[in-house]
Amino acid sequence: MSDTLTLYTHPLSRARITRWMLEETGLPYEEVLLQFGSTMKAPEYVALNPMGKVPALKHGDTVITENAAICAYLAELVPDLGLAPPIGSAARGAYYRWMFFLAGPVEALFTAKYAGKLAEPRAAGYGREDDLLRTLEHAVAGRVHLVGDRFTTADLYMAAFLGYYAQIGLLDERPAFTAFVQHHAARPAALRATQRDDALLASSKA
To answer: What tens digit of pLDDT does each residue of 153-170 get?
Structure first.
């Protein structure tokens, strides 16, 4: 692969998920640190991502936004690592299920919960909070991997979501959630990503 990968990021953002995924791939990448309300809204960046937010990933002339899309894209760049199950397999179906469940209903529910404005269950794609939490717990209880018997991007995405929402107090620290997060957060790629983002955060405060 000859085209450069460039991560547009800020350490206090969901771009930490993309960083972890990049570290899992082992692919070389550059980073561009952007600031909320200033460089994220600058014309040069808005031309890449009209939302004016991070993360975004530039690969040659291709620009990908939204964490789930970025992570899925990166998994396809390194097929030998098995970060996405084979196309057409039953595991691939489960992989898509959890990736889109997390990026859709789960993200929407916790955003609404943070804002203190949960919608009526029948009007919201996330339905009832109890049902969503039961689904999450059932997915990870007693399991190391969501799909098959090896680590995939779905595990990364689930661990990142559960860890973040527990950290900010929106998710109960149920044993099944804690065990799943702790297992995957100890991966070398996750540790490298955290170390880099924490260093960026410290330098931005200096």
So the answer is: 999 999 999 999 999 999
Query: If you search the block for the tokens 């600058």, which residue do you land on?
Result: 42
pLDDT digits (tens, 9 = 90+) for 85-126: 999 999 999 999 999 999 999 999 999 999 999 999 888 899
DSSP reduced 3-state for 52: coil
How crowded is the C-beta side of 34, counted as CA atoms within 13 Å?
25
* b/e sequence 93-126, b meaning 16+ C-beta within 10 Å: ebbeebbebbbebbbebbeeeeeeeeeeeeebeb
**Backbone phi, psi, residue 33, to 5°:** -85, 120
pTM, rounded to two decimals: 0.95
The four Cα atoms 128, 129, 134, 136 give a dihedral, to 10 degrees, of 110
**67, 54, 205, 71: which is closest to 151 by C-alpha?**
71
- Between strands 62-65 and 30-33, the pairing is unpaired
CA atoms lying within 13 Å on the CB side of residue 57: 26
- Tokens 């930490």 -> residue: 16
Domains of the chain and CATH, by start: 5-81 (3.40.30.10), 90-188 (1.20.1050.10)
